[in-house]
């Protein structure tokens, strides 16, 4: 995969030189890079690997999912805040994840935590389960579990 | 010292800290270099650098950090001071007043018109002292039995 | 351009840094430190000559002209003090070689000494208000470390008080700088002086001058000396000697500088206050000097007395009293160093600290005893030793000014000085010899020689007072006539 | 360098050389070398007599600190020469005596070194024209005396005696120095001659009388005048040659000399007359009165000396009256007293020196000086007895000895002054002859006691350390020479009178001499049947009666425990000073940081606040203010609240959290006030500091409730608010009193000047790079220091041993 | 208009900060204070951003970053202190 | 604004002074740190607040504020850090050796 | 309103809404019953507030000065990266330091698991010099109230 990137950079450089301007300019380089992306995408199968930017797209997808969740659950928390009487029922539950490795675990944890209303309190020693504190277990545990699954999938698209 | 009978899985913190400290280090270098024209400079650069190390020390431990950065921070500080004071004495060689700084613009390949100044050396010294001292202090206390 | 002026501060700084790299090599550390001090002595002497021929010298750091940059100003007053401090330090270093533990020497001891000296010399030389603050801090930081060097209980206990009190005084200093900058808008001493003269020393400026006075009073131990006896009696002998000789002098120097260069327009307020404080200091110091049997305390209170005495010279501020004060400063630096070295040596030899626990030492250590006797006389201002001329001139100044109470206090205090030290001499050196020849701790030459050098210094300074007079008159001249200083600094050359 | 200067210096030089001589030339007693010094000096001075007697003076100057007019200017006139001859002459004899007196086991090199120091100093005193030069030597005599008294420093009494003498004489010396400074200040000269020349110009200066009193204090302490005499008896702890030399013949005469020397300056003043005369007279009485009850021969001689010094002093006082009258026939009458004083000065040295040597011989011989154990030595020590007899008869003022002559002249003087009608003498004058006469009676009594108790009566060998025997001849030579002089002077008084005393009068009354007054006198043993003679006869008669009835009236002394009281006063004073000092100092030096900080803050509040009030700095207008946005207001308020909350924080962690809020707040204000660099630095430093606190907390205990008593806490509040108020007030006043624009517009050219756009950075890195460099050093010190603190620990804390 | 909005925003932030300060003071538990402190830090980041906009300067952008970083470090440090009592370990514990 | 900030500085001074007067060394050290803040507020207020833009050439339209006080404060901040570090370590070493951080127990021996 | 004007208005609106979010979060940390729930408001709702504000500022600079501030973007990333970790670490600390959960809490699956861990932690703390005891006393006192 780094090879793809290097090739892309090489193309960009080439593009810059070909453009033959008075000065080396960053915008030309960017343009060259964009051109390179197209070229590399077309040819990535020759390298027998995934197109290196597909991870990038997955990442963007992950972000989008996340943003949706973020806004949704922010609404929930804010709702609790402005409600005249506080009547949610917090709780601490265990969630076993399919993700493995430091980066995956971390990413999922970050997402869980960024989602308002849920915090990872502990990670098990093996790193295969989280203890999550949810602000309102009663109402949103299921919703939370659902978004967790979505996150897991999205993360795996990026990392694997 | 503490015998760790229970273990904390610090994976989240450590993973993020690695990433974050990279960002901080980059920022530190940036601040150092940019200082002449925008906020920053030797002090801030050094301090930020030091704070990155502090973060690593908190999140990891002295042993790990020492392995990662095997330098004597006292010497780093001293070397920094030597640089700073050295530029002071350096001016004498050129028959200038003590601590006279010189700057000029040069055309360098790839960088274009670049300003090179002895203040850079001076400030590098400052930064090194700051890093060296902050880390020395924190390490000294933390390592005390 | 007189880069030489920077050297008394910069050489020690550079040395201190280099010594860090030479940590394992004690011999080299010692040699370099000593060489640097000797170099400083040479430089100072040369500068004194240069000032005689060329007038006040200055060095604009980085070539930035005053009042914009920082500069060092070398007039006779400051250079005389630099010279004396270099001499004292060089001699104290000699003493250190034979007295300081190896483990200390491995712990950057000489770096700290160099830095202390750098701070002191910088304070003497700088012509910039804020830079003075920074130089103070260098000196103080080094002193914070040195006072507790070794980490003994007593040292820690006293040093923490010393540090806190100095932190507070530094804070007041900073605040005072802020105040003055708010009103005058400059940091260059000469420029400040010029502007104050132009604007007049308005009430607020007088108030600010008192804020400065508070700072320097704390540093010098003028009236606010209560921190001093405790702190000065805990560090190791050499450090104690350097403290006794140098530290309060910096505060005193600053007071002289500020109240002769900047705030000299309302002497009825400022100088009167200084006079009252000096008088009270003399009283308190005198009482303290005879109050205790711990010889380190006796020595420390003697420091206090000297502060009061010298400040009488400033309170009076006549040409004569100022000359006397400069003489007395030089004398006191040398003799106080000697006193502290002797006291430390006594303690090291007997393992006792109280004068009634020692007896008959003169049999065991005759030279030590006689040097103590000489130091006693010298501090009491007995001629022809070094304290005499300063005393005479300050006394003369008080007469010119009609300050009879100060005159009386100043001279009565020297009786207390005499009595306090005589007590030590009589009880510790004379009397039955209780240390037999076999249990006697042998006296190292390395301890004796530095003391002897200082003793000779005191005698030489007394007998050879004339040789210094031209420089000292010049020094006082600048204090009397600030325009000399201003012209030297603000003229572009 | 002239021979004169050399004469003063030779003793000092030999003081340095003698120890070496002692060390390397073992076979010859070092005293012989030492004796050469005064001997040669004596010869030198003798050959000056004709010149001086001629009315000439010799002078020579050795520059010391010419810039301040402080020099050693030797000036020899009759007065100086008289004393110089005494110093060198008696010196020679004393050293000769000491060679036999001191055991070679003693630390001879020290002894002679001190003695030489003393001799040089003494010569310096009597020959200095420069006041400060005189003072130098003056103090040197005190110091060498101190060293000599404590020659046997292992003895507590020696040390105490030495200490007492040093304290009293140096205190007097310092007082005298102040007097010198005053007189020098008003006369604008350090030269005694020049001062004398300008007396008429300076004598109505308001410092004139204070200067006189201060100088007299110096003279009185040195000459053991009442009430400062208490050091002299204790000084008898010194080896006897020292007592003979310093404490009777020479050093104590320094004060007398000073009075004589300053007579032309202060002489015309009533204060001078009365102080000198009455102190002298009372001392005369008190010394003689107390001498009678002494049982130690040396103590007896000490009090006798005190008494005799008082007598000389009073005569100088009386003589000074002449200057009040100026040039007139009457004045000669009074100058006679001074003449007598000078004459007695010489006489006293001869007989008293001899007597001291006798005591030394007796002591040496039988091992005691206690009159209660002595007696009957006449047969065993006839030569000694003869010497003693001559000496004490002279002391008692009997013919045919020199003491008689001077005492008669003394009587004449007191009788004459009784007649005077100035200085309120009409009323008080009669006291003078009365006291003089009474004192002479007691003098007769103790002189008799000296002889009778020692040499007559029963010989009680069992009470002595050794059986009595005559000493070696060497020890007798000196006293014999002295008593020969005692007799010789009686028969040929005018040799002294004409060659020494008359020229010396020049020194006292130069004004009168200048006007042609003839002050020389011929001395006669026989005046005819004049009141003086009757007085002497009365003295003898009453003296014998008193001696014989001594045991009946001795109880009188119990009524006068004052002498003891004076000594107790001295001892008590020292003890009181020490203990009160300890109490006072302990009272405020509590070694408690809080108290020290209270002092600092009170000082800050009172002094600065006081100055504000005093100078009127309180009236000012507030500076022009920028607007306050709500965010700013909230931030400021939050900071204030957070800060105050720290005071109430129950845990240290809370405190540090609140402190972090402050840090954030400050950084925020820096942002608001357009200081990005500061904000950056503040933030990082704050964080690192916090981390530091947390690291250190690990080692420190949780903080406890302060548990202050209510009062302490109220005090704390008052002080805190006071400091805050003063700080704020001055700050506002300073801002409201802006007088000049800042210099910093210059830095706005940072780009052209230093090649940087960031002005703050340009200042730090270039314009004020020195600050930055040094600040880095500060940081370095802190870093290394922390390392040292932690690494350098006492392995085994052996508490407090250095 | 925009200026008013910015001022309003700053005021709201100010109030939020004030509330957080109160939480820091009243606690009651130490983690409560840390939560509030962390929040103050993050809100200040926003404030500085707004101030930069309203002052029209880019000079504070570094401050924003640094503040974010340091708030994080402080929080980590405090938390570790609460958790363990020591914030810097000498040796690896895993 | 200037007056407000100055008063804030005054409040900080008051609080700091109160802390300095306490027995516990840690309180005292915190007090010293707070004093420094007050001094900095004072100095930054000196040239007048919000009358210029940031002292970076080319930033903002108004002329730059007086940069000198800022430079001074920067120096002082760093020095303050150094001092705090030293006093903190001294405090802890004192506690370690003597076993108390209470100043009233740190008086030491009386001579007599 | 011009395009630029509109964009700037949007930017300002973003910032303002961020401010509103922040205020709400602040109210949250006042109102919520225990530290665990407060942290939800504190560390995360405020994250959103920052996101909005910084975005607004970014847009403003981009449109107003044509300046695309990498630093602002980096700031956003940074906050996103660190805020949750901070929350996690605080909560974990609170939990391990035995800060009580509110009474309304309905489940605690970690309780049993961490029982042992807590005991160990307890033992460690006492071993390290009762550092925490005072802090904890205070907490307990507060919770009793
Ligand atoms: Na003793
Ligand atoms: Na003793």
- The overall number of domains of chain C is 1
Number of strands of chain A: 3
Strand order of the largest sheet of chain A: 1-3-2
Cα-atom Rg of chain A, whole angstroms?
22 Å
- First-to-last CA distance of chain C: 9 Å
> Order of helices and strands of chain C, N to C?
HHEEHHHHHHHHHHHHHHHHHHH
Largest sheet of chain C: 2 strands, antiparallel
Secondary-structure-derived class of chain C: mainly alpha
When the domains of chain A are counted, the total is: 2
Query: Largest beta sheet of chain C: what is the strand line-up?
Result: 1-2
Task: Please sum up the structure shown.
Chain C contains 21 helices and two strands. Chain C has helices at 7-21, 26-54, 76-99, 102-105, 109-125, 129-147, 153-184, 189-199, 203-220, 227-232, 237-262, 270-289, 295-316, 319-350, 361-364, 366-379, 387-401, 404-429, 445-463, 465-480, 482-490, and strands at 57-60, 71-74.
What do you see in this structure?
The complex is a heteroheptamer. By secondary structure, chain A is mainly alpha-helical. Chain A is 64% helix and 11% strand. Chain A has helices spanning 2-19, 26-43, 52-82, 102-114, 137-159, and strands at 91-96, 118-123, 129-134. Chain A has a three-stranded antiparallel β-sheet with strand order 1-3-2. The model of chain A has no long low-confidence stretch (mean pLDDT 79). Chain B has helices at residues 11-34, 42-59, 62-68, 73-93, 118-143, and strands at 103-108, 112-117. Chain B contains five helices and two strands; from the N terminus they run H-H-H-H-E-E-H. In chain B, strands 1-2 form a two-stranded antiparallel ribbon. The radius of gyration of chain B is 19 Å and the shape is flat. Helix content of chain D is 73%, strand content 2%. Chain D has 36 helices and two strands. Chain D has helices at residues 3-24, 30-46, 49-53, 78-101, 108-127, 131-149, 156-187, 192-197, 199-202, 208-222, 231-235, 240-249, 251-266, 270-291, 297-319, 321-325, 329-366, 382-396, 402-418, 425-428, 431-455, 473-491, 493-508, 510-514, 531-548, 550-553, 556-559, 562-588, 593-615, 630-648, 652-672, 676-697, 710-736, 750-754, 759-767, 769-791; strands at residues 58-65, 70-76. The chains are: A mainly alpha (160), B mainly alpha (145), C mainly alpha (493), D mainly alpha (802), E mainly alpha (94), F mainly alpha (112), G mainly alpha (145). Chains in contact: A-B, A-G, B-C, B-D, B-E, B-F, B-G, C-D, C-F, D-E, D-F, D-G, E-F, E-G. At the A-G interface, helix 3, strand 1, helix 4 and strand 2 of A face helix 1, helix 2, helix 3, strand 1 and helix 4 of G. One sodium ion (NA) binds next to helix 18 of chain C.
Secondary-structure blueprint of this entry?
The complex is a heteroheptamer.
Chain A lengths: L1 H18 L6 H18 L8 H31 L8 E6 L5 H13 L3 E6 L5 E6 L2 H23 L1
Antiparallel strand pairs in A: 1-3, 2-3
Helix pairs in contact in A: 1-2, 3-5, 4-5
Chain F lengths: L1 H19 L4 H21 L21 H32 L14
Helix pairs in contact in F: 1-2, 2-3
Chain G lengths: L2 H29 L3 H31 L4 H27 L10 E2 L1 H18 L5 H12 L1
Bound molecules: sodium ion (2 copies).
């Amino acid at each position: 995969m780094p090879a793809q990137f290097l090739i892309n950079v090489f193309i960009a450089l080439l593009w810059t030189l070909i453009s033959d301007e008075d000065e080396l300019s960053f915008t030309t380089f960017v343009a060259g890079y964009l051109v390179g992306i197209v070229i590399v995408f077309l040819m990535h199968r020759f390298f027998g690997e995934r197109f290196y930017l597909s991870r990038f797209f997955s990442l963007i997808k992950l972000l989008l999912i996340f943003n949706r969740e973020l806004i949704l659950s922010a609404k929930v928390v804010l709702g609790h805040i402005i409600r005249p009487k506080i009547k949610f029922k917090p709780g601490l539950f265990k969630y076993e994840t399919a993700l493995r490795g430091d980066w995956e675990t971390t990413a999922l944890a970050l997402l869980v935590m960024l989602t308002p209303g849920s915090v990872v309190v502990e990670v098990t020693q093996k790193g295969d389960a989280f203890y999550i504190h949810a602000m309102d277990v009663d109402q949103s545990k299921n919703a939370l579990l659902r978004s967790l699954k979505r996150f897991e999938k999205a993360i795996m698209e990026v990392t694997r | 010292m503490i015998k760790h009978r229970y273990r904390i899985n610090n994976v989240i913190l450590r993973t993020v800290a690695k990433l974050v400290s990279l960002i901080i280090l980059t920022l530190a270098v940036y601040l150092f270099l940019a200082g002449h024209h925008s906020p920053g400079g030797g002090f801030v650069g050094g301090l930020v650098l030091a704070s990155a190390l502090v973060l690593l020390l908190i999140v990891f431990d002295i042993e790990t950090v020492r392995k990662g950065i095997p330098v004597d921070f006292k010497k780093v500080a001293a070397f920094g001071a030597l640089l700073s004071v050295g530029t002071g004495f350096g001016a004498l060689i050129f028959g200038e007043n003590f601590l006279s700084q010189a700057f000029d613009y040069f055309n360098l390949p790839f960088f274009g018109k670049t300003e090179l100044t002895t203040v850079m050396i001076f400030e590098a010294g400052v930064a090194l002292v700051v890093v060296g001292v902050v880390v020395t202090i924190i390490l000294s206390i933390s390592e005390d039995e | 351009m007189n880069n030489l002026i920077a050297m008394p501060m910069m050489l020690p700084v550079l040395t201190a840094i280099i010594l860090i790299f030479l940590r394992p090599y004690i011999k080299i550390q010692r040699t370099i430190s000593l060489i640097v001090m000797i170099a400083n002595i040479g430089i100072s002497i040369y500068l004194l000559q240069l000032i005689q021929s060329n007038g006040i010298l200055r060095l604009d750091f980085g070539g930035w002209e005053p009042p914009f940059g920082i500069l060092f100003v070398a007039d006779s007053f400051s250079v005389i003090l630099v010279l004396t401090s270099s001499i004292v330090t060089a001699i104290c270093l000699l003493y250190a070689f034979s007295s300081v533990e190896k483990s200390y020497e491995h712990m950057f001891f000489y770096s700290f000494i160099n830095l202390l000296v750098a701070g002191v010399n910088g304070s003497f030389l700088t012509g910039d208000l804020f830079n003075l603050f920074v130089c103070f801090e260098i000196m103080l930081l080094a002193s914070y470390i040195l006072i507790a060097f070794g980490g003994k209980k007593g040292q820690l206990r006293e040093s923490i008080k010393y540090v806190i009190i100095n932190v507070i005084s530094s804070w007041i200093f900073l605040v005072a700088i802020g105040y003055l900058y708010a009103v005058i808008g400059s940091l260059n001493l000469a420029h400040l002086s010029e502007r104050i003269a132009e604007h007049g020393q308005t009430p607020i400026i007088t108030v600010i001058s008192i804020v400065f006075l508070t700072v320097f009073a704390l540093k010098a131990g003028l009236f606010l000396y209560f921190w001093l006896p405790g702190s000065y009696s805990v560090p190791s002998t050499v450090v104690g000697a350097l403290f006794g000789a140098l530290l309060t002098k910096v505060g005193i120097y600053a007071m002289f500088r500020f109240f002769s260069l900047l705030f000299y327009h309302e002497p009825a307020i400022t100088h009167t206050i200084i006079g009252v404080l000096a008088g009270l200091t003399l009283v308190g110091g005198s009482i303290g000097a005879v109050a205790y049997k711990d010889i380190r305390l006796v020595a420390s209170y003697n420091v206090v007395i000297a502060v009061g005495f010298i400040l009488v010279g400033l309170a009076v501020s006549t040409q004569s009293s100022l000359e006397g004060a400069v003489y007395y400063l030089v004398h006191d630096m040398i003799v106080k160093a000697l006193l502290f070295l002797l006291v430390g040596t006594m303690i090291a030899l007997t393992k006792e600290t109280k004068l009634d626990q020692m007896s008959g030492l003169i049999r065991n250590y005759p030279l030590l005893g006689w040097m103590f006797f000489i130091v006693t006389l010298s501090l009491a201002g007995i001629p022809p030793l070094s304290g005499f001329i300063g005393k005479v001139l300050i006394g003369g100044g008080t007469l010119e000014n009609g300050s009879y109470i100060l005159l009386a206090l100043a001279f009565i205090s020297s009786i207390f000085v005499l009595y306090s030290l005589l007590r030590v001499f009589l009880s510790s050196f004379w009397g039955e010899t209780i240390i037999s020849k076999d249990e006697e701790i042998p006296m190292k030459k390395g301890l004796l020689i530095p003391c002897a050098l200082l003793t000779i210094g005191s005698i030489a300074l007394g007998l050879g007072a004339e040789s210094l007079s031209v420089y000292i008159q010049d020094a006082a001249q600048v204090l009397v006539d600030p325009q000399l200083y201003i012209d030297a600094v603000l003229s572009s050359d | 360098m002239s021979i004169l200067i050399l004469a003063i210096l030779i003793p000092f030089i030999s003081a340095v050389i003698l120890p070496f001589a002692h060390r390397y030339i073992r076979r010859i007693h070092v005293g012989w070398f030492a004796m050469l010094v005064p001997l040669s000096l004596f010869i030198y001075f003798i050959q000056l007599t004709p010149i001086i007697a001629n009315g000439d003076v010799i002078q020579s100057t050795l520059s010391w600190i010419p810039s301040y007019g402080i020099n050693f200017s030797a000036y020899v006139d009759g007065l100086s020469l008289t004393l110089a001859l005494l110093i060198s002459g008696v010196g020679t004899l004393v050293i000769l005596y000491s060679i036999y007196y001191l055991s070679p086991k003693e630390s001879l090199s020290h002894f002679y070194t001190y003695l030489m120091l003393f001799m040089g100093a003494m010569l310096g005193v009597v020959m200095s024209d420069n006041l400060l030069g005189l003072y130098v030597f003056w103090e040197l005599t005190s110091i060498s005396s101190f060293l000599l008294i404590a020659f046997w420093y292992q003895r507590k009494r020696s040390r105490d005696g030495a200490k007492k003498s040093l304290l009293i004489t140096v205190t007097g010396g310092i007082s005298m120095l102040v007097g010198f400074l005053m007189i020098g200040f008003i006369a604008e000269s350090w030269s005694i001659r020049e001062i004398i020349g300008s007396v008429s110009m300076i004598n109505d200066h308001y410092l004139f009388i204070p200067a006189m009193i201060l100088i007299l204090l110096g003279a009185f302490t040195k000459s053991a005048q009442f009430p400062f005499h208490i050091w002299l008896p204790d000084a008898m702890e010194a080896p006897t040659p020292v007592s003979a030399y310093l404490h009777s013949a020479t050093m104590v005469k320094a004060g007398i000399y000073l009075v004589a020397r300053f007579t032309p300056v202060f002489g015309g003043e009533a204060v001078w007359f009365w102080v000198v005369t009455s102190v002298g007279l009372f001392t005369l009485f008190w010394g003689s009165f107390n001498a009678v009850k002494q049982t130690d021969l040396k103590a007896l001689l000490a009090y006798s000396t005190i008494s005799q010094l008082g007598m000389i002093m009073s005569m100088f006082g009386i003589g000074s009256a002449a200057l009040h009258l100026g040039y007139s026939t009457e004045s000669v009458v009074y100058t006679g007293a001074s003449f007598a004083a000078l004459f007695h000065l010489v006489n006293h040295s001869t007989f008293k020196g001899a007597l001291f040597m006798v005591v030394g011989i007796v002591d040496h011989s039988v091992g005691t000086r206690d009159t209660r154990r002595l007696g009957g030595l006449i047969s065993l020590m006839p030569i000694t007895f003869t010497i003693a007899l001559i000496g004490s008869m002279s002391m008692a003022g009997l013919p045919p000895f020199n003491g008689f002559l001077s005492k008669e002249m003394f009587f004449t003087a007191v009788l004459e002054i009784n007649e005077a009608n100035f200085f309120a003498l009409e009323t008080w004058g009669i006291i003078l002859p009365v006291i003089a006469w009474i004192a002479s009676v007691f003098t007769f009594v103790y002189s008799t006691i000296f002889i009778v108790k020692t040499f007559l009566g029963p010989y009680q060998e069992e009470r002595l350390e050794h059986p009595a025997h005559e000493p070696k001849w060497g020890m007798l030579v000196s006293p014999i020479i002295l008593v020969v002089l005692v007799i010789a002077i009686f028969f040929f008084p005018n040799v002294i009178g004409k060659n020494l005393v008359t020229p010396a009068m020049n020194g006292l009354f130069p004004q009168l001499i200048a006007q042609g007054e003839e002050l020389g006198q011929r001395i006669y043993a026989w005046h005819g049947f004049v009141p003086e003679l009757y007085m002497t006869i009365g003295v003898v008669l009453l003296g014998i009666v008193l001696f014989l009835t001594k045991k009946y009236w001795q109880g009188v002394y119990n009524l006068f425990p004052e002498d003891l009281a004076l000594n107790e006063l001295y001892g008590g004073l020292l003890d009181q000073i020490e203990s009160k000092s300890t109490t006072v100092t302990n009272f405020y030096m509590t070694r408690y940081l809080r108290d020290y900080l209270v002092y600092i803050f009170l000082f800050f509040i009172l002094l600065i606040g006081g100055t504000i009030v005093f100078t009127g700095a309180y009236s000012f207008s507030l500076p022009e203010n920028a607007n306050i946005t709500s965010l700013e207001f909230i931030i400021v308020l939050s900071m204030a609240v957070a800060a105050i909350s720290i005071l109430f924080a129950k845990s240290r962690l809370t405190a540090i959290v609140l402190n972090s809020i402050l840090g954030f707040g400050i950084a925020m204000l820096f942002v608001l006030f357009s200081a990005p660099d500061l904000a950056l630095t503040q933030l990082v430093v704050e964080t690192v500091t916090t981390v530091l606190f947390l690291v250190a907390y690990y080692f420190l205990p949780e903080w406890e409730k302060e548990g202050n008593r209510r009062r302490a806490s109220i005090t704390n509040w008052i002080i805190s608010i006071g400091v805050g108020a003063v700080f704020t007030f001055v700050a506002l006043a300073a801002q409201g009193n802006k007088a000049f624009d800042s210099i910093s517009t210059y830095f706005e050219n940072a780009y052209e000047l230093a090649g940087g756009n960031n002005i703050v950075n340009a200042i730090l890195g270039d314009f004020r790079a020195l600050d930055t460099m040094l600040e880095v050093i500060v940081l370095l010190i802190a870093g290394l220091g922390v390392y040292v603190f932690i690494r350098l620990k006492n392995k085994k804390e052996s508490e407090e041993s250095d | 208009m925009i200026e008013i909005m910015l001022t309003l925003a700053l005021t709201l932030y100010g109030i939020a900060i004030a509330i957080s300060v109160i939480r820091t003071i009243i606690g009651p538990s130490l983690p409560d204070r840390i939560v509030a402190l962390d929040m103050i830090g993050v809100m200040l980041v926003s404030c500085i951003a707004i101030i930069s906009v309203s002052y029209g300067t880019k000079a504070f952008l570094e401050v924003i970053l640094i503040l974010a970083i340091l708030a994080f470090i402080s929080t980590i440090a405090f938390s570790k202190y609460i958790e363990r009592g020591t914030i810097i370990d000498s040796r690896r514990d895993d | 604004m200037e007056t407000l900030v100055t008063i804030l500085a005054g409040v900080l001074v008051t609080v700091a002074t109160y802390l300095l007067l306490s027995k516990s060394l840690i309180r005292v050290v915190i007090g010293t740190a707070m004093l420094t803040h007050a001094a900095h507020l004072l100095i930054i207020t000196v040239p007048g607040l919000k009358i210029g833009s940031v002292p970076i050439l080319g930033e903002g339209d108004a002329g730059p504020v007086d940069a000198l006080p800022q430079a001074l404060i920067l120096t002082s901040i760093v020095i303050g850090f150094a001092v705090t570090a030293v006093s903190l370590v001294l405090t802890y070493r004192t506690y370690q050796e003597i076993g108390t951080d209470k100043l009233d127990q740190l008086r030491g021996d009386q001579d007599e | 309103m011009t395009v630029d004007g509109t964009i700037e208005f949007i930017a300002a609106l973003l910032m303002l809404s961020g401010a509103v979010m922040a205020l709400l979060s602040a109210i949250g940390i006042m109102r919520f019953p225990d530290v665990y729930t407060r942290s939800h408001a504190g560390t995360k709702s405020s994250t959103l507030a920052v996101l909005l504000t910084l975005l607004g500022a970014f847009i403003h600079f981009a449109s107003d000065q044509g300046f695309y501030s990498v630093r602002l973007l980096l700031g956003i990333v940074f906050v996103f990266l660190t805020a949750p970790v901070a929350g996690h670490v605080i909560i974990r600390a609170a939990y391990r330091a035995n800060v009580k959960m509110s009474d309304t809490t309905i489940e605690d699956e970690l309780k049993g698991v961490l029982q042992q861990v807590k005991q160990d932690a307890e033992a460690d703390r006492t071993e390290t010099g009762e550092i925490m005891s005072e802090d904890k006393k205070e907490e307990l006192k507060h919770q009793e109230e």
